[in-house]
Design a protein that fits this description.
Layout (H helix, E strand, L loop, with lengths): L1 E5 L1 E6 L1 H7 L3 E2 L5 H9 L7 E6 L8 H6 L3 E5 L5 E3 L4 H7 L1 H5 L4 H6 L1 H12 L3 H12 L3 E6 L5 H9 L6 E5 L1 H6 L2 H5 L3 E5 L27 H11 L5 E6 L2 H16 L6 E6 L5 H10 L2 E4 L6 H4 L6 H6 L3 H7 L8 E3 L8 H9 L10 H8 L6 E9 L4 E10 L7
Parallel strand pairs: 2-7, 3-4, 4-5, 7-8, 8-9, 9-10, 10-11, 11-12, 12-13
Antiparallel strand pairs: 1-14, 5-6, 14-15
Helix pairs in contact: 1-7, 1-8, 12-13, 13-14
């Protein structure tokens, strides 16, 4: 069955970071042995930045790292990385903090924006790279995106000066926001916080227990988070908070409530990911006007992470039917969707939405499209082939114009 949809807006991506990494080797689609052979053959006289490493498929032992050429290997989740022994001097020179804390997971989870900045500095960002990445998403159905953690001031300036600036919504970490002048701040959508880790790094703040090891990682203590929200609430801008596990979601909701009661002013409150949110938490978020920004493609975590998540967690991931049918969230209004670039495009997200591991994760194609929303700064259509027999969705063709987007 074929269906035609408009070009969409990805509400959670990292276009500047992925633009910088676009010229880097991506091993995410390679088999482990193929990827390892590729890494072994990289140049020995310079640092190679490689993305898409899946630690659960290709573990990196100290012995392996001692034999590889100069290498910074970035986890598919973006939250983790390893540096080969021969790559350490290169990283120490360009990003000393990254080198110093490479084995300290707690530091890494508490400093994700700084790590993204280091990735960007090491890989390099310019308008050509940025536009190439954005252009490349159109064929996959994405015409515009929110950049949820613009990594550096130079990356902000590249985005703002770009001919595609109207197709990028920018969010910055608090430390970077503090460094910006008023004209730059005025062009941002808001401030983005990370308060827990990621499933891929076994550091999301879930009660657990994890299978095979894992630990909830928090960026802030409760009082620290509240103090920060009160400070950020003086700017009157948007606030987006990364919270994957139910413990992190609880910490965020409590901090939101207390900050709002004490006069914090946010033009928009977003909870990013919220993968294991329960009904009571959903009701509280709804009552506070919190927008849930979620990733239908992460529904596949319920298949991919059977090595680390008990069955109860696999079943609780991305509870879209509860959120829509019971808690009353409305796709496109207070329930919005994005990809996090893992992977890009609408086909994989549509596959997971229409053919999920659990019925509670199902989204109709209309709900999915409404949750993404129509692209900004560019319009067009996309033909999708929905194969119910195979349980898959493919992009068949796209048609693009530069006219103002119209809802189709």
């Amino acid at each position: 069955m074929n269906t035609t949809i408009p070009l969409l807006h990805d509400n959670h991506n990292h276009v500047a970071l992925y633009g910088a990494l676009g010229s880097c080797l991506d091993v995410s689609s390679m088999q482990a042995e193929t990827a390892l052979d590729m890494l072994k053959g990289l140049p020995s006289d310079r640092l190679s930045v490689v993305r898409g490493w899946k630690s659960f498929e290709l573990p990196m032992t100290t012995g392996t790292l001692s034999r590889l050429p100069p290498l910074l290997l970035i986890n598919f989740s973006l939250h983790g990385f390893v540096i080969s022994d021969s790559g350490l001097p290169f990283v120490e020179q360009a990003a000393p903090q990254l080198a110093k804390h490479r084995a300290d997971q707690s530091w890494c989870e508490a400093n994700v924006p700084a790590i993204f900045a280091a990735y960007t500095v090491l890989a390099g960002i310019n308008e050509a790279k940025l536009c190439s990445y954005i252009d490349g998403r159109v064929q996959y159905g994405i015409g515009s995106s929110d950049e949820m953690t613009v990594p550096t001031i130079s990356a902000i300036d590249v985005c703002l000066a770009s001919s595609y600036s109207d197709r990028i919504g920018l969010w910055a970490a608090p430390a970077l926001y503090d460094k910006l002048d008023k004209p730059r701040r005025a062009r941002l959508s808001g401030i983005k916080l990370f308060i827990d880790g990621a499933l891929g790094a076994r550091s999301a703040a879930i009660c657990g227990p994890w299978i095979g090891g894992g630990e909830a990682k928090y960026t802030y203590k409760d009082d620290e988070l509240l103090a920060l929200l009160l400070k950020l609430g003086m700017h009157g801008t948007g606030l987006a908070v990364h919270a994957i596990g139910e413990l992190a979601i609880e910490q965020a909701l409590l901090a939101f409530k207390k900050a709002l009661e004490r006069g914090a002013d946010f033009s928009l409150l977003r909870l990013e990911h919220a993968q294991f949110i329960d009904r009571k938490q959903a009701d509280r978020a709804k009552a506070m006007g919190v927008v849930l920004s979620m990733q239908p493609n992460f529904t596949s975590d319920s298949r991919d992470y059977v090595d680390r998540l008990p069955q109860a967690y696999l079943a609780r991931n991305n509870p879209f039917r509860m959120l829509i049918d019971e808690a009353g969230f409305v796709p496109g209004k207070d329930l919005i969707f994005g990809s996090d670039g893992m992977p890009d495009g609408i086909a994989y997200a549509a596959t997971q939405a229409l053919f999920p591991p659990y019925p509670s994760q199902y989204l109709s194609i209309d709900e999915l499209i409404a949750g993404y929303g129509v692209s900004k700064g560019i319009s067009g259509t996309l033909s999708l082939n929905i194969d119910k027999h195979e349980g898959s969705v493919r992009v068949e063709a796209s048609s693009v114009s530069n006219a103002s987007p119209q809802i189709l």
